[in-house]
From TrEMBL:
This is ATP synthase epsilon chain. F-type ATPases have 2 components, CF(1) - the catalytic core - and CF(0) - the membrane proton channel. CF(1) has five subunits: alpha(3), beta(3), gamma(1), delta(1), epsilon(1). CF(0) has three main subunits: a, b and c. SUPFAM superfamilies: Epsilon subunit of F1F0-ATP synthase N-terminal domain. Its main location: membrane. The gene is atpC. Keywords: ATP synthesis, Cell membrane, CF(1), Hydrogen ion transport, Ion transport, Membrane, Transport. The keyword ATP-binding does not apply. Coiled coil: none annotated. Produces ATP from ADP in the presence of a proton gradient across the membrane. GO terms for cellular component: endomembrane system; plasma membrane; proton-transporting ATP synthase complex. One of its GO terms (molecular function) is proton-transporting ATP synthase activity, rotational mechanism. It is found in: Cell membrane; Endomembrane system. Belongs to the ATPase epsilon chain family. It comes from Propionigenium maris DSM 9537.
Amino acid sequence: MATFKLEVITPQKKVLEQEAEFVMLRTSEGDMGILAGHAPFVAELAIGEMKIKNAGEEVRYFVSGGFMDISAERVMILADEAMDVREIDVERSKKEAEVAKQKLGKLKEDRDIAATQKALQEALTKVRLAEQHL
């Protein structure tokens, strides 16, 4: 099967650079699958899971927002946060979710509420993905 270059970059570091046969991830419009030769495309990413398939192996990542740029040669993921689901600390993510839930009840400003809701969604998604991997 044909492959393409996949790069995943966060503000902190380059998370991944490898060849891939297939990538599936969540965009703001829904889940999207990418194969080699995909038409050029740019999409906003949503909080969710990214599946990468290559040489019969599948690796899963947590991705928190950002953008995806598909060109003829590569797929570049510019994510707010990205990590292999095997690296997620489930207990820490559960604590982050609890803190966000408690904080939500006390907030008054819309922008603070939105940021806290995003943090809660990120933490709950990490827990779900990590528990699926166990």
